[in-house]
Design a protein that fits this description.
Elements: H1 2-22, E1 58-64, H2 71-86, E2 91-96, H3 107-112, E3 118-122, H4 145-159, E4 168-174, E5 178-182, E6 196-199, H5 203-210, E7 213-216, H6 219-227, E8 233-237, H7 240-243, E9 252-255, E10 264-269, H8 271-276, H9 279-313, E11 319-322, H10 325-334, H11 336-348, H12 353-368
Parallel strand pairs: 1-2, 1-3, 6-7, 6-8, 9-11
Antiparallel strand pairs: 3-10, 4-10, 5-8, 5-9
């Protein structure tokens, strides 16, 4: 009897448990390996990876002393556009041409101090600040802007001068042979005696050795100085006669390519700004810089051709005076002290000026012989 009652109680418990289980929500059974799960509906498909929101663009300011119409300013503009393109818009560079952010002589220090993030101007506009690189501007007979630009970059890469260690150098470029543009004809060395000539940097010493009276000033000041008679002439690449419209206020050009100097121009970036760039962005800058070195050199040569055409198109056409071989020899001899003075001044500062000068002369000789 007891056994029967116990069995009956067990049955009642089992029934109660079964009924209670019906009130609970059952979870779907996981598919077994033998029976695959049904295809997922679109709502159940795994989410595709979504690109992270793009970071805010890196905005950089670029101070340029050239006017916006100048071919070198336009070349800089295409460089900035290429940086933006290759970084997929991550880097945006705003140009401030014509000295609107920093004037030509202040561009370098403006980059050092963060007034602008990038800057383009001439080493020669701050005499004494770049004692080794002054050698780039010596009257060595540079044949073209392409040659001058290539040589300048090679020399800086080789010597890595400490005098520009407070910025990050992007690249340099340099104009074609500096010539003499004047309001009076200069056909021989004696014609330069007492002539007031606009100069900058080492070209001041060139004019002194040639017998002229140098007057230091930057390109933006030169047009007015010529038009008002403050100076009688300017030592410059022929491109400036169009690029800076100086052909309108001169009458003669003496082709002094035999002592053709150049003016090396830097494109530098604030060191902290450079270091803050991600490595992949820095690499893009490096790649574009290499390409634009050649483009700037070619732009200088194109500008020289346009400058020559421009002065021929004026009424009356400006006269170009060629120096005979004998006169060229006199001009070369006259500027030799500029070379020796540079080497001596560099040596006094424990800089390899003589070696730097020899390397420059060898490099120029190779371009002239087509090597």
């Amino acid at each position: 009897m007891k056994r029967t009652i116990a069995l009956a109680l067990c049955a009642l418990v089992i029934m109660a448990l079964g009924m209670g289980g019906c009130t609970k929500k059952t979870e779907p059974a996981a598919p077994s390996q033998e029976q695959p799960a049904p295809p997922a509906t679109p709502a159940q498909e795994p989410a595709q990876p979504v690109a992270a929101p793009s970071e805010a663009a890196i905005k950089l300011s670029y101070s340029i002393f050239f006017p916006p119409t100048h071919i070198q300013c336009k070349t800089a503009e295409t460089w900035a556009e290429e940086i933006k393109k290759r970084t997929n818009g991550k880097v945006e560079i705003t140009l401030y041409p014509g000295g609107t952010l920093t004037k030509a002589p202040q561009v370098y220090e403006g980059v050092v101090n963060g007034v602008s993030d990038i800057g383009m101007s001439c080493f020669a506009y701050t005499p004494g600040q770049f004692p080794l690189l002054e050698g780039l501007d010596l009257p060595l007979g540079y044949p073209t802007g392409t040659a001058a630009t290539q040589i300048a970059n090679e020399m800086i890469a080789k010597y890595n001068p400490a005098e520009i260690a407070n910025v990050h150098l992007l690249y340099v470029h340099a104009h074609g042979p500096g010539l003499l543009a004047s309001k009076k004809p200069v056909a021989k060395l004696e014609d330069l005696k007492g002539l007031k000539v606009r100069t900058t940097g080492l070209s001041t010493k060139i004019v002194e050795c040639l017998g002229g009276a140098p007057v230091g000033m930057s390109q933006p000041e030169t047009y007015e100085a010529l038009s008002k008679g403050v100076v009688d002439a300017t030592l410059c690449p022929i491109e400036t006669l169009k690029g800076w419209k100086q052909g309108e206020v001169i009458s003669y050009v003496t082709d002094s390519t035999c002592i053709g100097y150049t003016t090396a121009m830097f494109v530098v970036m604030n060191s902290k700004k450079w270091e803050a760039l991600p490595p992949d962005i820095q690499q893009i800058f490096n790649d574009v810089n290499k390409e634009w070195i050649a483009k700037h050199g070619q732009a200088w040569d194109q500008a020289d051709r346009e400058g020559r055409d421009f002065i021929k198109s004026l009424a009356p056409p400006r006269e170009i005076i060629a120096l005979p071989a004998e006169e060229q020899a006199k001009w070369k001899k006259a500027v030799e002290p500029v070379l020796t003075s540079y080497a001596a001044a560099a040596k006094a500062k424990n800089l390899p000026g003589a070696e730097f000068l020899k390397n420059l002369q060898d490099s120029i000789a190779k371009t002239q012989t087509g090597q």
